[in-house]
Amino acid sequence: MTLKIALDVDGVLADVIESWLSYNNKIRPTISKSQISEWDFWKNHDINKFDFYNELSICWKSWENIPPTENDIASATKQLSNIGTVDIVTARDESTHSDVKNWLKLHKIIFNNYVGVVEGVEKSKLDYDIFIDDSPLNAKNMLEKGKSVILYSQPWNVSFKDKRATRIHELKNAVPIIDNMINDSK
User: Fold this and answer.
1) Kind of pairing between the strands at 148-152 and 165-168
2) With 86 labelled, which of 26, 67, 80, 128 sits at a CA distance of 20 to 30 A?
3) What's the rounded Cα separation, in Å, for the pair 128 and 7?
4) 3-state helix, strand, coil in the chain (%, to 5)
5) 46 in the Ramachandran plot: left (φ > 0), alpha (ψ -120 to 50) or beta?
6) Would you place residue 115 in the very low, low, confident or very high pLDDT band (cuts 50, 70, 90)?
7) Which residues contact 36 (CB under 8 A, 6 or more apart)?
8) Is the pLDDT of residue 100 over 90?
9) Which of 31, 14, 23 is nearest to 92 (CA)?
């Protein structure tokens, strides 16, 4: 059995929040990554949701400056592709798809298909065996639909507690979890 794995980009592969913080801190009071303790943190900083998402899209225009979330991310995605079919499944503004694909190529991220959706909650409607994501809202939605979730740990999802989701701190840690799922299904 080959598992179909949906791999998120922002917050799992690409540390776009670092680019956004750099952008934000030039035009507003300074925010540090550790202050982002919840998904919709912008509310606490009087930032309009649409402005925030628009600014993320602006950051993607400088895709070559967006750092990966961890060193050797390509090796981790290669390991994942050796145990299942990995698709990039990302929610974003349509105008950023080519920038994201360029970033994935630059960082040698291995995947089969690229799937873009407009809203994160749409991901749970897709046919994947396991989702690797950092959004607590997406994780909740996926779990409610009976999907398997590996939550990539970030400051904005630390308070998310659900025993059905497995938390990882490095992408390579998803490999033994998925191996166990494959072995359990035999």
Assistant:
1) parallel
2) 67
3) 10
4) 50, 20, 35
5) left
6) very high
7) 17, 155, 156
8) yes
9) 14
pLDDT at 183: 84
**CA 45 vs CA 38, 139, 144, 159, 160: distances in Å:** 12, 24, 30, 19, 21
Structure-block tokens of residue 39: 């998904």
Domain ranges for the chain, please list them. 3-14+67-184, 16-65
Q: CA-CA distance, 89 to 35, in Å (whole number)?
A: 27
CB atoms within 10 A of CB 95: 11
Distance CA 177, CA 48 (A): 38
Which homologous superfamily is 3-14+67-184 in? Answer: HAD superfamily/HAD-like (3.40.50.1000)
- What per-residue confidence (pLDDT) applies to 1? 65
- At 36, list the tokens: 């982002």
| DSSP secondary structure of 12-42 | TTB-HHHHHHHHHHHHSS---GGG--STTGG
